[in-house]
């Protein structure tokens, strides 16, 4: 990928890619990629982080040098490493100099790195005292609102992280109006002393999987899932297997259909890696997949390439999650012209457009009826959705930055 090599030469001059201090520049945009640089889990947030970073790295900004940064558990923020061949990210080398931000510099906490940000809050505090601004992307506040949905360590790290946001951030960039409202409520309830000094903005997300530097690979099981979706009416669920995602109510509805209307019941395709506190659900999925009538397929590992192929072939995408900060599978499916049936949550109402339907009763018979009724709705909608350029434009406006104007 020659464009990546050229991009690296522009955003990370050769002097920086050695061990020299960062170059002098009017201003620098320091983009935190700590989690994805250590491990790309391939979930929705990782697709968002990859897409936003890829687009930020390409834009030309007046007087701004865009740099990828990352911190480890033991060392503070330093320049992250970008692979010139494929654009992949990795953590800074052990001898990489720590960054010293100053007047006009902008820190953007793009990655969800709750366990890192709090460890290095003193570094961020020094930057802020020196004149840098601290800007944090907030994906949701669910670990605070519903701690029973998450491991104890997640809740503990999140509480530390949100405390740093309240003490040090100049601006938060929320991924939906619902998250912005939740953050305002947290500020008020927590009586954060400087809450009026924190700007709260919203950045919409795109469903363009192909523009996220997508992971590739289909595999034998993936090819079989594509073939089945091509010959049998299939409903698709996308999301890590975790308590809030609602796999349980969909499976209850489908088992009801398999018993009462087997000829009408669609095949079920679930894409999601195993998560926490769902051992019983994972066993249930494995048992259903092993049934002789093969009514269900579970892909615990799926590349972005495979996911896009499955979206394109699904008769319906079902989003029964009980809590989200946005609802990325909804916009990804609508962008490919798929119908979507989602739980009637306020955050999903923000995404309302042709092709998106809602249910408010998840009892087995009621949800089964909603699934069948949505399958019988009119033809799939025309593909629609924002591009990642729209997301980045919104982000840059929030940060007070402007792209260079093209020559007339």
From TrEMBL:
Q: Which residues form the Glycosyl transferase family domain?
A: 223-375
Against InterPro entries, the record matches this protein to:
Glyco_trans_1
Q: Which domain of life is it from?
A: Bacteria
- What Gene3D superfamilies does this protein map onto? Glycogen Phosphorylase B
Signal sequence interval, chain numbering: none
* PANTHER family in alphabetical order: GLYCOSYLTRANSFERASE WBBK-RELATED, MANNOSYLTRANSFERASE A
Query: What's the name of the protein?
Result: Glycosyltransferase involved in cell wall biosynthesis
């Amino acid at each position: 990928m020659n464009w990546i090599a050229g991009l690296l030469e522009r955003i990370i001059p050769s002097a920086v890619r050695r061990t020299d201090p960062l170059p002098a520049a009017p201003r620098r945009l320091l983009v935190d990629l700590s989690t994805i640089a250590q491990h790309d889990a391939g979930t929705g947030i990782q697709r968002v982080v990859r897409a936003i970073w890829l687009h930020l790295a390409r834009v030309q900004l007046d007087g701004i040098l865009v740099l990828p940064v990352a911190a480890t558990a033991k060392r503070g923020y330093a320049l992250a490493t970008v692979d010139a061949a494929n654009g992949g990210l990795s953590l800074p080398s052990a001898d990489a100099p720590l960054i010293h931000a100053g007047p006009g510099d902008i820190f953007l906490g793009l990655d969800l790195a709750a366990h890192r940000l709090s460890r290095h809050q003193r570094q961020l505090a020094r930057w802020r005292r020196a004149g840098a601004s601290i800007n944090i992307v907030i994906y949701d506040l669910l670990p605070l609102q519903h701690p029973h949905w998450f491991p104890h360590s997640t809740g503990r790290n999140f509480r530390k992280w949100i405390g740093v946001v309240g003490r040090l951030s100049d601006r938060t960039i929320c991924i939906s109006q619902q998250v912005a409202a939740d953050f305002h409520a947290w500020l008020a309830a927590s009586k954060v002393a400087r809450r009026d000094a924190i700007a709260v903005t919203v950045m919409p997300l795109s469903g363009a999987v192909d523009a996220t530097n997508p992971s590739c690979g289909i595999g034998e099981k993936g090819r079989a899932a594509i073939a089945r979706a091509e010959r049998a009416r299939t409903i698709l669920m996308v999301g890590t297997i975790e308590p809030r995602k609602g796999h349980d109510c969909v499976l209850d509805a489908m088992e009801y259909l398999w018993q009462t209307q087997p000829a009408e019941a669609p095949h079920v395709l679930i894409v999601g890696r195993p998560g926490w506190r769902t051992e019983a659900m994972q066993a249930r999925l494995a048992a259903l997949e092993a049934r002789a009538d093969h009514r269900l397929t579970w892909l615990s590992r799926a590349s972005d390439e495979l996911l896009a192929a499955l979206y394109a072939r699904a008769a319906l995408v079902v989003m029964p999650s009980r809590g989200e900060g946005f609802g990325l599978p909804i916009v990804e499916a609508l962008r490919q012209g798929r119908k979507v049936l989602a739980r009637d949550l306020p955050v999903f109402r923000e995404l309302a457009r042709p092709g998106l339907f809602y249910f408010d009763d998840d009892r087995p018979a009621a949800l089964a009826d909603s699934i069948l009724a949505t399958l019988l709705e009119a033809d799939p909608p025309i593909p629609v959705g924002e591009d990642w350029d729209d997301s980045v434009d919104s982000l840059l406006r929030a940060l007070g930055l402007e792209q260079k104007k093209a020559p007339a």
